[in-house]
Amino acid sequence: MNPNQHTKAAGSATDLYYPRAWAYARESKATPALPQQLADLCAAARLEGYCMVGQSCDSTRRSMIRRPGRRALLRAVRNGQIDDVFVTRLSQLSSKRSRLRHILALFQRKNVRIHTTEIDLRYDLYRHGLDGVLL
């Protein structure tokens, strides 16, 4: 299947559209909670009718620049392979406001929706001083 095609229900008379989702989790250190967090994000996405096309996680300190899981997520966004991203809260993507603003701008340019499962998205944007970033 072409990675730029959306997933459709197999054999469906109406060709239902299933948005493609990616789950991303991060913890400051490797803990048993990390795989569970990722599983919970995937379950939340599936419960809402999303087709999971990817998932990734990182267990790094805040100051670490290298986050292979986040890089994989952003690569999928840039390549148009996903429609929605599921995270527990925005700080999973970045704790630095400038970096978070850059990531959210990329999501907006690529029409990727973001879902937060622990904190209301509007409140989370407000907490980070980014409530005016998304249109």
TrEMBL record:
**Which intervals hold domain Resolvase/invertase-type recombinase catalytic?**
21-134
Q: Which domain of life is it from?
A: Bacteria
Query: Which SUPFAM superfamilies does the entry link to?
Result: Resolvase-like
What the entry lists under Gene3D superfamilies is as follows:
Resolvase, N-terminal catalytic domain
GO molecular function terms attached to this record = DNA binding; DNA strand exchange activity
Q: Which Pfam families match?
A: Resolvase (PF00239)
Listed name of the protein? Recombinase family protein
Q: Which organism is it from?
A: Candidatus Gemmiger avicola
